[in-house]
Amino acid sequence: MEIQETDKQEFNITVYTENQIGLLNRIAIIFTRRKINIDSLNTSPSEIDSIHRFNIVITESEEVVRKLTRQIEKQVEVLKVYYHTNADVVWQELALYKVSTDVIAEKVSVERLLRENGARAVTIRKDYTVFEATGHREETDNLIKILQPYGLIEFVRSARVAIIKDSEGFNSKLREFERLEPGEEVIENEYLNQGQKVFTM
Amino acid sequence: METQTITQEIGETAAATQPVSKELSGSEALLEALIVEGVDTIFGYPGGAIMPIYDALYDYSEKLNHILVRHEQGGIHAGQGYARTSGKVGVVFATSGPGATNLVTGLADAQIDSTPLVCITGQVFAHLLGTDAFQETDVINITTPITKWNYQVTDATEIPEVIAKAFYIARSGRPGPVLIDITKNAQIQKFQFEGYTPCNHIRSYRPKPIVRPQYIQQAAELINNAKKPFIIWGQGVILGSAEKEFKAFVEKSGIPAAWTILGAGAIPTDHPQNVGMLGMHGNYGPNVLTNECDVLIAIGMRFDDRVTGRLDKYAKQAKVIHLDIDPAEIDKNVKSTVPVWGDCKETIPMLTQLVEQRQYTEWLNTFNEYTRKEVEQVIHEELNPSTEEMTMGEVIKHLNELTNGDAVIVTDVGQHQMVACRYAKFNKTRSNVTSGGLGTMGFALPAAIGAKFGAQQRDVIAIIGDGGFQMTLQELGTIMQTGVNVKIVILNNRFLGMVRQWQELFNQRRYSFVDIQSPDFVTVAKGYGIAGKSISDRSELEGSLKEMLAHDGSFLLEVFVTKENNVFPMVPQGCSVAEIRLK
């Protein structure tokens, strides 16, 4: 069945911003004002020093997401906003698992299970070992289930980061922004809109 | 375009950049910046955390006229009134903590009504931030949702650049309020001031979306093929200074046009194609015929729920063309067939060029038919009442006759506001100052003070209810001290009338806490040295209004009107615009 504009599904919202105190709040309240829960939020510097990239995941209808992205883009320090369905992005979450080194050393099966699930050791100490796994939510969830019987000590998972499949020219456009500061009139970051699937305004 | 605007606004203060280098304090740098931005009036109230700025202001009082208000809320509403009549950015000063929190209502009001403001708040010393210091409040976070932009300055060297950004952001694109919070150390700190350069570009900020000619083309095609097109306009026409362009469009296209409350006056009330007011208490024809037109052309308006009524029954039959400078408004409430993004000063002339010269005599007559019915059933009685007691409408009617529609009318919120906006005659743009989106009671008195400072050559008349007047009547003190000439008409129905009307119509006359008592307003005014008069007899009305208008200085006229009059027509909440009631 085709997904309607009014059907809820996961959307990945990508926001390029200036690195400014208070901007996280300004963006977050756009969601909270409408009582929309943020499923996942990642913010970190982009490939350009002064420009940050947010990855926000929410479960909403496309109609709502489109309105939200316009409200976000309206903020003075936001450079550009895009939204994509899960099908339009390649995404990963990173998970860290801390388990007792003794247990791993004893049980050969644990090592096999870890390998099968694509985990790798980040730190090995006498008392504990930290494994890292990346993947979709189900994959990192699955490893929790596997490690639980062997005495999982601590677990943490990152927010989602997502790469947009149809993002020809993003990097060079960002470089252009960098050059334009402090610049003359920016013609418009419009050419980013050429992709059919990205948000256009 | 932007640079032009800035040069205009800076006006006679000569060069934008002063290539001087001198040691100044943060406070002095701020005031220098204001002067280059063309600021002449500041509304404010001093306090501990903004004292260095006020100390500097002492030496600038010849260049910057500071109006001492009686409450920061009064200050910001005055700033709004100033901005609305002058078209310039309103400037407001307040101290930290309670001073800043008292700005909140005005910021929310300015945000929803797109009023350009720059508010400067003092803040505790930077090293005290987050320590719950005396009069410390997290103003930035409190005001984030109700400002277009805000910023905290902790170092004086940032001041020139930040103030430049503040003015640019406040006035460009869709205007709005900006708040700059300056810590006390930054106000005191000396630094090498290298002159002030107004801002005309921020890389992450695009005040105007790019105009796409193909959409203009599509819009023109829709209009040229329409049988019953209908223009609805809002404040965007006024904010974009596009009144002339808009009038040309209306006249060439021949299309009937109706206005939202904030759009009033963009073209004169008695223009033959001006068919009246939209919305809950708007005119009969514009509401009913919204659901009969085939092409709806919305210009600089945002389809507020008070305009649309029930959304799923709003103009469903029509193709919608939406012109707006703010892309977030497109498809927000009403789905458009053709979105026309852009500054209407640019887009309207493009559209005018492509539309055919037409007349819609029959269609316009349909509007006039509805007007006739509305006059018969509502307007005639409101303006020429058969009752002994006076109505709000007849007061406005007499005012129209005496001012000939040339005055600035400032209204508060409630029944009197709807009556004033429905019946007041506006010949000129920037004549209707009211709290539209937020519906802020207490807005009118301080806004009228600001409106007068923003348009000193014009008559400013505040129309206020007995409830709203009591919310900010302390600003009579501001009138007393400044001697500003504001005419105040209190339409006293001894009720919180609009709530009472709803209680009557929808809550089975359960008049829950709407019976409000008032002091003797004339005596109150007298206490402030303001002349006044109270009347309850029709025979005194015209003479008293004349006396008020002729009085040299402010004047308060209290008019006792019918207690339980209702404002009609009315689109009841949850109903479609076509279900508008005449009684």
Walk me through what this model shows.
The complex is a heterodimer of chains A (201) and B (583). Chain A is of the alpha+beta class and 201 residues long. Chain A has 2 domains: 8-89 and 165-194, 2-Layer Sandwich (Alpha-Beta Plaits); 90-157, Alpha-Beta Plaits, CATH 3.30.70. Chain A is 29% helix and 35% strand. Chain A contains 6 helices and 9 strands; from the N terminus they run E-H-E-E-H-E-E-H-H-E-E-H-E-E-H. The longest helix of chain A has 12 residues, at 62-73. Chain A starts with 7 loop residues before the first strand and ends in a 22-residue tail after the last helix. Mean pLDDT of chain A is 85; it is low at 182-201. Chain B starts with a helix and ends in a 23-residue tail after the last strand. In chain B, the strands form 4 sheets. A 6-stranded parallel β-sheet of chain B has the order 3-2-4-5-7-6, sandwiched between helices. A 6-stranded parallel β-sheet of chain B has the order 11-10-9-12-13-14, with helices on both faces. Chain B folds into 3 domains: 2-193, Rossmann fold (3-Layer(aba) Sandwich); 213-367, Rossmann fold, CATH 3.40.50.1220; 388-560, Rossmann fold, CATH 3.40.50. Chain B is globular, with a radius of gyration of 24 Å. In chain B, 58% of the residues are buried. Chain B contains 24 helices and 20 strands.
Q: How would you classify the quaternary structure?
A: heterodimer
Average pLDDT figure of chain B: 95
Fold-level CATH name of the largest domain in chain A? Alpha-Beta Plaits
* CATH fold-type name of the largest domain in chain B: Rossmann fold
**Termini of chain A, distance in Å?**
28 Å
Number of domains of chain A: 2
Radius of gyration based on Cα positions of chain A: 20 Å
Largest sheet of chain B: 6 strands, parallel
Uncertain residue ranges of chain A: 182-201
- Silhouette of chain B: globular
Task: Supply the CATH superfamily name of the largest domain in chain B.
Answer: Thiamin diphosphate (ThDP)-binding fold, Pyr/PP domains
What's the CATH C level of the largest domain in chain A?
A: Alpha Beta
Can you summarize the main beta sheet of chain A?
5 strands, antiparallel
